[in-house]
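WARN retry 2 of 3 for item q-0093 after timeout on previous attempt; input resubmitted unchanged.
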Amino acid sequence: MTFRDTQQFSIENFLSELQITLNNMPSREDVNSSLSTLLTSFEYVLNKHDPLKTLSKRQECIKSKPWLTKGLLRSIRTKNKLYTNLHKKSAQDDHKWAEF
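OK item q-0093 returned
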């Protein structure tokens, strides 16, 4: 899944560079080639100011489940850490009992 993260996007910088790019475009008689050049220029400037980003599998899974809030994810992480620590501790206790 790809997306554009618009948090750092500056519309003023984007529009000023787009205007400069469009002013430097050569005028053409053919409408199709002019439109193609316009779309290519627009996409180039857009990708320069706000590039596409790809979500990792984990991020994609989280995005597909809107009920998983930051608080729930934090609680799940805490639970997993406690569970891991419990297993480490019980493995050490089993080893002590074996020595006894």
